[in-house]
Amino acid sequence: MKARTADPFRTLVAAILSARTKDETTTAAFERLSAIVKRVEDLRRLPVKQLERLIYPVGFYRTKARHLKALPDALDRLFGGRIPDTVEGLVQLPGVGRKVANLVVTESFDKPGICVDIHVHRISNRLGLVATRSPLGTEQALRRVLPPRYWKTWNRYLVALGQTVCRPRYPHCDVCPICECCERVGVTGGRTRFPCAGRG
Q: pTM for this one?
């Protein structure tokens, strides 16, 4: 997600929009919505149908529009209108899972958090750093084995690596900067296009 901002509300909205959506689509939708929605209360006055039109074509835009519409009431009911600064608090809000919550905590509150998406899950397992079956399991395992000083940047680096080098299929191991540290779990010579230098 490229629409990062220090404002907790804007970060939260952008993160909700970004789920299962390409960065460029998220950014465009976020900009359209931000032209009208400046604060939480603005969501209360907008009809769901208008929210749908503003954020289309993000993935699951109808569901996300309902979540955005419900956000002001949820914040009032649970947190006195304030956006919580913990993962545990944020996941109580509509449309907020642990990935979104961790992103808000790190980007807007400068607190340690590990945002685990498909890239982080895959590469952390491929490295042999964890052995998990789900993003939630990966987050919990990384919290145990990864020094907290790396938590905030782990997602950023691994997403970039996963999009360009450590692909789901045919990873480019020959040009990977951390190949010599990688256990290559689940990667065999027959399934990788470029065998890692220095490995048999």
A: 0.85
